[in-house]
């Protein structure tokens, strides 16, 4: 039987996880570029057939088909006129929710809704898929009615009440910081605190990550034992908002705790892959979320490189060696994703993670004790007193570290591409494929051609800029008065900068002209409105929609424009 062949694979879970990722990416590509999606999937399975044979290829294809069907089941759903909605995001400019566990935008009659609330809505659904964000469309609400809280919404309300109780003792800013670090309540987190955490490479600290889950799970296991800890830890996952990184950490810890009673050796790569498969079954769009990507890449980096780095740093003191090896190994694979997302990188993460990690761990533990003792005023107040001074210590350390901050380096997507090529080349060279040494040189030629751009291209940066590039000209058009011009110039490798000009011409036939707050792209006799915001517009022009996040770059041909996914 085919499944018997599967036993020849020592660790099948990474293969299955890979098929779910491929199936999700193929489904997204097929939605717009059918033949390209078919070509990529066919090439991949042809390679598997060449390396592993027909039986393994058929098994892989089976899981690939399951992943595609799972995506189809998620996106091919049309809500009715009346639906139950759970509010998942409330922002000044948009409200989002879930209908039958599918993400939707909400418009129309929304009376002071809060995150976690459940409402019964009546209205009209407009299907408009945004596969990269998991949204199936927009529900225009004509009438809504608040429903009785379920278990999850009650947890959200308790979390909010705990935050306000902490605020009464510590003040708004410290309460926001503690609530964010301890149990993922980031709604009121100060922008300066976000920026400090970002500059020190500690953004994972202000959202519940594997660090938090491991600490909480470890403490719970000592108090309640192996039997009850998984159930109590699951409550913590729900209480914190069930972020993908938290779910990933919970599943891996659960696999670890079950390995001993089931008399199985725990394989961390298999545990990570199993977590990925479960998450993608529940939320197929997770493969495109930066939280999911960074969490998995950082964890895989730790699994693959932590022990090796620890051994190489044997001359350092134990606490420094372990902290440094863990921090560096987490960055090895997550670096390209970080650069693609934030367009910058600094080695401050080494200082931040080694020096501040112990303080953050203390805040995680005390913050969650505040949750447990919320109904016990005397203990709660005493813990708030301790927390106040812990946050003061944290502020003092951050102020001190700012004096020794290393410079920030700005990169664009070419850096990530080149890094990945070097990583892959090194891996295959060690496997004996010596001719792979030519790949970096080919990549450099490709990057040089891309920067020169023999075909006109326009790229949208969400920081607030367009980049027009053609035959060596790289023209940066800033869209915001407060945009960081120097940062954008370095990221884009621009040689010309304009602050919202009226008209710009590139090549013989391409003109970019201002039209109110937007821009019109004119190519020969055809005109396109460049759309940056999620809003309804009635326009006489064809629309190039950057607001969905499905693409951020277009190639401008004579007769048409082609979006690059």
From TrEMBL:
Occurrences of domain ComEC/Rec2-related protein (ranges): 182-429
Localization per record: Cell membrane
Record-given protein name: Competence protein ComEC
GO cellular component term of the entry, any: plasma membrane
Organism name: Clostridium gasigenes
Signal sequence coordinates: none
Membrane topology of the entry: Multi-pass membrane protein
Top-level taxon of origin: Bacteria
Keywords annotated in UniProt: Cell membrane, Membrane, Transmembrane, Transmembrane helix
Primary subcellular site in the record, as a coarse category: membrane
Record-annotated membrane-spanning stretches: 33-51, 58-77, 201-220, 232-251, 271-304, 349-371, 378-398, 404-429, 436-455
Entry keyword Lipid metabolism: no
Keyword Cell membrane: yes
A Pfam family matched in the record: Competence
Entry-linked InterPro entries: ComEC_N (IPR004477), Competence_DNA_uptake (IPR052159)
């Amino acid at each position: 039987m085919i499944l018997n062949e599967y036993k020849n694979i020592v660790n099948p879970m990474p293969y299955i996880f890979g098929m779910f990722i491929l199936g999700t990416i193929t489904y997204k590509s097929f939605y717009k570029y059918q033949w390209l999606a078919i070509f990529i999937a066919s090439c991949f399975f042809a390679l598997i057939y060449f390396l592993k044979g027909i039986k393994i290829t058929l098994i892989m294809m089976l899981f690939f088909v399951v992943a595609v069907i799972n995506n189809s089941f998620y996106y091919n759903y049309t809500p009715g006129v009346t639906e139950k909605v759970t509010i998942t995001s409330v922002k000044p400019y948009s409200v989002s929710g879930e209908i039958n566990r599918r993400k939707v935008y909400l418009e129309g009659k929304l009376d002071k809704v809060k995150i976690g609330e459940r409402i019964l809505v009546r209205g009209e659904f407009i299907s408009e898929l945004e596969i990269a964000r998991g949204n199936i469309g927009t529900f225009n609400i004509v009438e809504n009615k608040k429903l009785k809280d379920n278990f999850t919404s009650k947890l959200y309300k308790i979390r909010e009440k705990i935050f306000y109780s902490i605020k009464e003792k510590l003040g708004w800013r410290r309460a926001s910081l503690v609530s964010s670090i301890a149990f993922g309540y980031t709604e009121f987190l100060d922008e300066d605190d976000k920026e400090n955490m970002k500059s020190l490479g500690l953004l994972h600290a202000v959202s519940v990550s594997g660090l938090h889950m491991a600490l909480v799970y470890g403490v719970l296991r000592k108090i309640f034992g192996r039997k009850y800890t998984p159930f109590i830890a699951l409550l913590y996952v729900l209480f914190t908002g069930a972020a993908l990184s938290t779910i990933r950490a919970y599943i891996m810890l659960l696999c670890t705790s079950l390995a001993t009673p089931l008399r199985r050796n725990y394989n961390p790569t298999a545990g990570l892959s199993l977590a990925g498969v479960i998450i993608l079954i529940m939320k197929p769009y997770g493969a495109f979320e930066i939280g999911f990507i960074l969490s998995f890449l950082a964890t895989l980096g730790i699994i693959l490189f932590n022990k090796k780095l620890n051994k190489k740093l044997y001359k350092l003191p134990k606490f420094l060696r372990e902290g440094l090896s863990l921090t560096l190994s987490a960055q090895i694979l997550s670096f390209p994703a970080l650069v693609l997302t934030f367009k910058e990188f600094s080695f401050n993460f080494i200082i931040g993670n080694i020096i501040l990690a112990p303080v953050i761990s203390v805040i995680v533990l005390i913050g969650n004790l505040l949750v447990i003792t919320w109904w016990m005023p005397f203990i709660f107040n005493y813990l708030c007193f301790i927390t106040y001074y812990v946050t003061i210590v944290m502020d003092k350390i951050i102020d001190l570290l700012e004096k020794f901050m290393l410079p920030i380096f700005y990169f664009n997507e070419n850096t990530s591409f080149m890094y990945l090529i070097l990583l892959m080349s090194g891996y295959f060279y060690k496997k004996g494929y010596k001719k792979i040494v030519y790949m970096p040189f080919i990549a450099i030629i490709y990057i040089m051609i891309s920067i020169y751009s023999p075909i006109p291209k326009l790229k949208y940066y969400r920081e607030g800029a367009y980049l027009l590039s053609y035959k060596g000209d790289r023209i940066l058009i800033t869209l915001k008065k407060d945009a960081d011009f120097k940062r954008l110039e370095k990221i884009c490798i621009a040689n010309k900068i304009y602050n919202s000009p009226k008209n710009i011409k590139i090549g013989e036939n391409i003109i970019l002209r201002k039209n109110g707050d937007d821009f019109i792209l004119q190519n020969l006799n055809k005109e396109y409105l460049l759309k940056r915001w999620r809003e309804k517009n009635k326009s006489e022009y064809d629309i190039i929609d950057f607001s969905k996040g499905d693409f951020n770059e277009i190639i401008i041909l004579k007769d048409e424009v082609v979006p690059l996914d």
